[in-house]
Amino acid sequence: MTPDGGAWSGGLHHLPVRVYYEDTDFTGVVYYANYLKFLERGRTDALRMAGVSHSDLLALDPPLGFAVRQLSVEYLAPARIDDALVVETRFETARGARMVIAQRILRGDAVLLTAQVEAACIDLDGRPRRLPAVMVDAIARASSRGG
Predict the structure, then answer these.
(1) What is the CA angle 17-20-25, rounded to 5?
(2) What does the longest C-alpha to C-alpha distance in the chain come to?
(3) pTM
(4) What Rg, from alpha-carbon coordinates, does the chain have?
(5) Which domains does the chain have, with CATH numbers?
(6) Cα distance between residue 12 and residue 90, in whole Å
(7) Cα–Cα distance between 92 and 46 in angstroms, integer?
(8) Which residues contact 37 (CB under 8 A, 6 or more apart)?
(9) Catalytic center residues
(10) 3-state SS class at 65
(11) Kind of pairing, strands 98-107 and 12-18?
């Protein structure tokens, strides 16, 4: 478990997120763009728990990072102020210069949002780079962990 409370189980990474006032619009419902922040936290924590930190990627030669290339989101139900949510992350593929990640945001058993994210590995000039083998291996190990 991370200090943020994230953990891998059954091939899925789970990150608890609380909805704060700053996340909502004037009606107390989470503003649609803020769900993307929750998803980003889930992906980042999943990578960190798999053994891949952004600071380690920046220390490589050449330094590497990620850019979201494609994102598909389906909003199913609203989250509201004070809700306790879980961001669920599953790496579907990690090969070449890209990763495909399936994510959901849940409140209890209710699925509030589903997302499919394609992220490209890039250098600091924005050129695509192969995912480092150590990262692909770390993601495969974490994704295959039983619950």
Answers:
(1) 120
(2) 47
(3) 0.92
(4) 16
(5) 7-143 (3.10.129.10)
(6) 5
(7) 13
(8) 23
(9) 25
(10) strand
(11) unpaired
